[in-house]
Amino acid sequence: MPAVLSFPVPPTSDDILQRMVNAVELVRQRLLRATAALASHAVPYAVAGGNAVAAWVATVDEAAVRNTQAVDVLIRREDFERAKVALEGAGFVYKNRAGNEIFIDDVNAHPRHSVKLSYTDEYLATGADGAHPVVEDSTDIGEYRVLNLLPLVRLKLCTFDLDDRVDLRDLIDIGLIDQSWTAKFQPVLAARLQGLLDTPDG
User: Fold this and answer.
1) C-alpha distances in Å from residue 65, one per residue of 41, 53, 173
2) Which of 121, 130, 158, 183 ranks highest by number of CB atoms within 10 Å?
């Protein structure tokens, strides 16, 4: 007799909405917990990645803010051990995953539920066209520090994967980046930006 397959009860629309809210809040709490820990141990840092983009977008149009799963933080390599002590003291668990320094939420957490560290002034992956910005090139927005807009855009143009291109289009769409910005970058990065400016609809 064939086995009878059973399926879980599908979530209601209210359940789905709550899960969406929870997902956003978990990232926010992870970001605040990590940056507060670093600050409490006097570790210089700057939030990068999608959360930095979201912070800049929010200065113009909060309705255009895109949620992000990643928590990316820049520190100086010489500060790693102090950062490790700070983050582990806040409950994070250190992992080196495929060469990436990450701190997951707890021992049972999935690697996507983590803080990823990158190091200032170190060159990006092979084929990229620059180094990570320095932590001093950042702005205190009250709850934490984020990369200033120019180094953030340069970083996005250097790595230039799909997420980076989406982030850059968001900044273009709300007017934080325009044609005048191409003059701020070396030719290869200016060409990447020009391509995005020339194709606003992708």
Assistant:
1) 30, 8, 11
2) 158
What order do you get walking across the sheet with 93-97 strand by strand? 93-97, 100-104, 114-119, 71-75, 45-48, 145-147, 138-140
> Is pLDDT of 46 > 60?
yes
Task: Give the torsion sign (CA, 75, 102, 164, 66).
Answer: negative
Q: Give the residue ranges of DSSP H helices in 41-79.
A: 49-58
**C-beta of residue 66 within 8 angstroms of C-beta of residue 54:** yes
Q: What proportions of the chain, in percent to the nearest 5, are helix, strand and coil?
A: 45, 15, 35
**Structure confidence at residue 125 (pLDDT):** 63
Among 19, 81, 29, 36, CA closest to 51: 29
Q: Encoding tokens for residue 174?
A: 């709300």
Domains, the chain, in order of start with CATH, read 13-147 (3.30.460)
Q: Which residues pair with 52 in a beta bridge?
A: none
Amino acid at 65: V
43: helix, coil or strand? coil
Q: Span 153-176, mean pLDDT?
A: 94
Indicate whether this model's pTM tops 0.85: yes
CA dist 50 and 48 (Å) reads 7
Q: How far apart are the first and last CA of the chain?
A: 53
